[in-house]
Design a protein that fits this description.
Strand content: 15-25%
Order of helices and strands: EHEEEHEHEEHEEHEHEHHHEHH
CATH class of the domain at 4-171 and 202-228: Alpha Beta
Number of strands: 12
Number of helices: 11
Largest sheet: 8 strands, mixed
Mean pLDDT: 94
Structural class: alpha/beta
Strand order of the largest sheet: 4-3-2-1-5-6-8-11
Shape: globular
Helix content: 25-40%
CATH superfamily of the domain at 4-171 and 202-228: NAD(P)-binding Rossmann-like Domain
Low-confidence stretches: none
Distance between the termini: 34 Å
CATH architecture of the domain at 4-171 and 202-228: 3-Layer(aba) Sandwich
Radius of gyration: 19 Å
CATH topology of the domain at 4-171 and 202-228: Rossmann fold
């Protein structure tokens, strides 16, 4: 009988790709969704509404593994106080809802695997390399990820193996961050942002999905893991590589930081700051990145 993986956020950018991989590897998949969807041979859909604290308990009770990807897009809108609350609540309350079903039914899954972000180390600009032991920052990005992971720790308290995947910038096809940049760079208007020196740890979506698969298969994986290539890519390097793929060299000056702050408000920290990341812990598990070269990863996303 197939093992079942329950996904929250399963209809999103990463969730869709991960669903395909899990099915390919012989798992059945259940997806928590706010809208009614028709079941397929390999995918079962269950309703939930986090704001109303509604969840079809069968989704959790029938699961062998749970992968938690749900959460409001952190870069979708300006960070008003209401938006900040929604970003945090969408991550924390959704885990609380799943945890309540597990606890109330004394249900044990083989692993609970939660998305997190390298933003836990804060909006930094510096040379320090952040490992999983680096303390969480107290700025907004750090606070979001810290509360996200603290919620996941309530699953650990149920004696369930819990893995937290601290994700960098995800590069993929036809969606995500890269898709938003394409119109600018296609028309040869791409340029670096701010100083251009801010680090941009990245990961190809295929590698990210493989890490989630490894977190299921490798029972030794536990706790937090950075999911990003350790190659010291800066915003300027990223911009130059992307322009190169479209056949030109960057000719426009960097977009000034003050312009981005005027347009994006506090959210400009996402693009104006960065951090160096260690990938040593995830690679020690035996995981090997398929894409460690930025240009190769970008070309794969843009030409396939």
């Amino acid at each position: 009988m197939k093992k079942n993986v329950l996904l929250s956020g399963g209809t999103g950018f990463v969730g869709k790709k991960l669903t395909d991989l899990l099915i390919q590897k012989g798992f059945s998949v259940s997806i928590l969704s706010r809208s009614d969807k028709k079941n397929t041979t390999d995918i079962s859909y269950y309703n939930w509404d986090v704001s109303q604290e509604i969840i079809e308990e069968a989704a959790v009770l029938d699961a062998d593994y749970i992968i938690h990807l749900a959460g409001e897009n952190i870069a979708d809108k300006r960070w008003t106080s209401e938006r900040k609350a929604a970003i945090i609540d969408s991550r924390v309350q959704s885990i609380q809802l799943i945890q309540s079903v597990l606890k109330n039914n004394n249900k044990k899954v083989e692993a609970f695997i939660s998305a997190s972000g390298i933003g836990i180390y804060g909006a930094l600009n510096g040379e320090a390399i952040c490992s999983e032991n680096t303390p969480a920052a107290n700025d907004f990005l750090g606070t979001v990820c810290q509360k996200w992971e603290s919620a996941a720790d309530t699953i650990t308290a149920l004696n369930i193996r819990t893995v937290k995947v601290r994700t960098g910038l995800v590069l993929g096809r036809n969606d995500g961050f890269l898709n938003k940049l394409l119109p600018i760079f296609k028309f040869r208007l791409g340029s670096a942002l701010g100083s251009g020196k801010q680090y941009m740890p990245w990961i190809h979506i295929d590698d990210l999905c493989t890490i989630y698969l490894e977190a299921i298969l490798n029972s030794e994986m536990d706790g937090a893991y950075n999911a990003a290539v350790q190659d010291d890519t800066t915003n300027l390097i990223f911009s130059k590589k992307l322009a190169k793929i479209f056949g030109y060299s960057i000719w426009l000056p960097n977009v000034p930081a003050f312009v981005l702050k005027l347009v994006m408000g506090e959210m400009a920290a996402i693009v104006l700051t960065g951090r160096r990341i260690s990938s040593e812990k995830i690679e020690k598990t035996g995981f090997k990145f398929k894409y460690k070269n930025l240009e190769t990863a970008l070309r794969d996303c843009l030409t396939n």
